[in-house]
Structure formats: structure tokens, C-alpha cells
Amino acid sequence: MNLKGLKVLVRGAGEMASGVGLRLRHAHFQVIFTEIEAPLCVRREVSFCEALYRDRMVVEDGEAVRAENQEQISQAWSAGKMAVLVDPDLDCLPWLKPRVVVDAVLAKKNLGLTMDLADLVVALGPGFTAGREAHVVVETNRGHDLGRLIYQGRADPDTGVPGEIAGQTSRRVLRAPDKGGLETDHQIGDRVRAGEIVARVAGRPVCSELEGVLRGLIRPGTLVWPGLKIGDVDPRGRREFCWTISDKARALGGAVLEAILRRFNQ
């Protein structure tokens, strides 16, 4: 079976979903992302959901454009691009007819995914049971099993602890202290010091606990709420990492590609 041009719908277009989609595009599949109207994305420079704000988004060597209908999706694919469609309820499924659906929202719960949505349904992370809600579940927990394909059972439960980078976990994450609009003069790629005010919410400061590079930051003006992740400080201090897919996203993309090949390349 020639898999070139295989239609794959990726639900979500944040950091991990974008890493998955880019890897599938490299394999010459036709990729469409579906998103909510106003995605809350931290690592915006490596997330194709930004196409909803900028009309087009380039991550590494991949480009996605905002699409409003079937014709614009086809035009994007014909130009070798991916498409991003506002469609959180997957209303496009009857006319798009993708062979593969990948749930990469990473909501830690099932938002309506069922095995009958496509020939192959793949779900990333906790909240899904392989063999019941998805054909395959991909382990997203960093460590020995990252990227493992699960055909029966569930992925590891959410630990609530961010993945370790250069020995840092929770301290590298910036969280909103209150409800309100995010105010900041900082940009992704800025170097910040420990104790430096990076943003404000309802007049309350958000300070970095580490010295490093601001790898991610929610779009300024966004309405946030207490505890929401709004930023990410990378203690490695490598600015170029702000604009490249992470090791975790690449691993998940490879796992989804393997799941597709195991299903269709027989």
C-alpha cells in the first residue's frame, strides 16, 4: 500500500501536537490540525496553532496555514503545507474522512475520542484506554517508556510534575498568581535572571525562580487564572531551543509514525 498522501487529523496544535504533525509531514502525509478558537499555548514559536493568529506559522522546515473550509485545506496540501482548522468538536470528519486521527491535546482526559472516528485512532498520554477509546495509546511520561506504544491498557497517570530539564522541574515553570489579563514586556528568547519579574497578572508579579532563557510565554493580553502555566524558563540557556522541536515532541512524533506504519504497512 502506498501511504503517500495519507490523510491524518491531529487534534490540537500545541507543542507536542506540532512535533507529531511535522514528523508526519516529513513522511509525506497530508496533515490537518484542529484547534479551539483561542488556544492557550506556552511554547508558541514551535506550535502550529499560532497560524490561527498569524494566518501562517513556520516551525523549522514545516509550514501550516489557517484554513476555513475544505477548499483551503486542499490548497494547503497541494502547496506542501499543513492546515489548521478551528474545529474542537471534529465536525470536519464526515467530509474530510481522514484515515488516522491523533488526539494530541494532552488534556489528561478524554474529550470525546472514540475508536470509530477513523481506521486508526491514536491517543497521546493519560486519560485513554487502548482497545476501548483508541486503537493505540502513546506513553508521554518522560523516562524509560517515553514513546512506547500501548495496545492494551493506559499510559502512566499524570504526575503533576513538569519534566526535568537540567535538573529543574517545577521551578522552571511560570504560573499565574491570579485571574486577569497577562501583561509583559518580555518575549520568547529573552534571558532572565532568578527573581526577575517576567510578567504581571492583575497587578501581581510573576517572577522567574531560575536564570535561563524564556523558552515559552502565553500570548500577552490572554485572560489567565490562578495556577495556569503561562511561561517556561529553560535553565540550559540555549536561545536556539526556543525555535526548534523538543526531544520529547520528536519522540512522540516517531511513536505516532510507527503506529501508522504498523497499522497500514502490511
Explain what this protein looks like in three dimensions.
It is a single chain. By secondary structure, the protein is α/β, with parallel strands linked by helices. Helices cover 18% and strands 29% of the residues. It contains 5 helices and 19 strands. A 9-stranded mixed sheet has the order 3-4-5-2-1-6-7-9-10, with helices on both faces. A 4-stranded antiparallel sheet has the order 12-19-17-14, with no helix packed on it. Strands 16-15-13-18 form a 4-stranded antiparallel sheet, with no helix packed on it. The longest helix is centred in the C-terminal third of the chain and has 18 residues. It starts with 6 loop residues before the first strand and ends with a helix.
Keywords:
single chain; 266 residues; alpha/beta; nine-stranded mixed beta sheet; 19 strands
Describe the structure concisely.
The chain is α/β, with parallel strands linked by helices and 266 residues long. 18% of the residues lie in helices and 29% in strands.
